Amino acid sequence: MSDKINLRKLYITIIFPIYVLSNLLSASSFAFADEGAINYFAELLSYIRYVIYIISIFYACTRHIKKKPLVYATLFTLLVLACLVVNRNVTFLCSLFVFWALVDFKWETILQKHHFVALVTLLVFLFFSQIGVIEDFVRLDGRTRHFLGFNWTTYAPIIWFFVTLGGLCINSDSHMIARSLGYGIVTVILYKLTGTRLAFGLTVVSIIFFLGFKHLKRHKKLFHFITSLTICAPIVCAVLSILVHAIYRSDNPFLFRLNELLSQRLYLGKMGLTNYGVTLWGQKIKWIGFNKNIISTVDYNAVDCTYLHLLLEYGLVFTLVYIILLTAGFVIAYKHGKYNMCWALCFICILGMTEPWLFNFTFNPFMFCGVALFQKLRATKATIIWGNLPFLYKT
Known about the structure:
By secondary structure, this protein is mostly helical. It folds into 2 domains: 107-216; 217-395, no CATH class. It has 18 helices and 2 strands. It has a two-stranded antiparallel sheet. The longest helix is centred in the N-terminal third of the chain and has 25 residues, at 2-26. The radius of gyration is 21 Å and the shape is globular. The relative contact order is 0.12.
């Protein structure tokens, strides 16, 4: 028994943080050669992750082989594997092994470990890039945009968005003013350096919201009603964002202006739908985006909207399953009183309308919090899960 406990502690305190760090470093400029290709450091990081995948499989088998969460995790993995037959996304499939290994950990513990590693990593990159120890590539495109040691200028603000949400979600009541002030200061600094408007705006809104979270909870009926509505976020955000991309026309003044505001995202999404179409099980697409070495728009085809990106690459079946699972996660969080998690996921769903990081194990630690879904499913029936939602009550 003691061996199992030690193995459990070893995995969550050492193995998982190393995995998080290797993912974050893979998004840094250290992992790319001058011509934009990955270098030996990136290959070393990939080997480290493959070792962690093997350890995760071993750990998951020794810990969960007689437990029901394994059944649900296995079914999920098999379904995703079926969806990946066409597009062959091995990286995501391997990340599921880590997800599998984390099934019996509390989501708060997972979030804390990821939060600490990401927080320290980002602050180290921010500090040393500004004193010249780490190369800080600067792009001038009407805005002065610092890369802060990462491979693209938006990476640091996006990582910070998830760091902020994680910190506010874990400790939503303790030292809120001081922590909000600290998060706010770094948010403003990152905005001044990178000029990333969407991440800045959503980070500021989330800080303000959680700052008033405690006061909002005093109005119990209103608070519970509004919070229960957050479970609609995945469906509403997915349908709305995909629809707007699908109906985009440059001769529509409103859509044209919105496209300009979103840095051509609507146009690129529309082109993605036109060029690739929607398939049932997905397709292999070579996405070509920007980095510190490549800024040509000739072959650029990246679709930033998470929901549309999933629909094009992973197919209709996988997208629907993912949205259903995400919605179930909202419901379970609400039913068990994790209201801060509901709102954190809601902000992430909104970010997913314009950024691809909703479905990303590197940037989004809340992906791993999906283990709570499998933990609760073994003891909770669907009819109970969907109960106690104020907006479903009959009046």
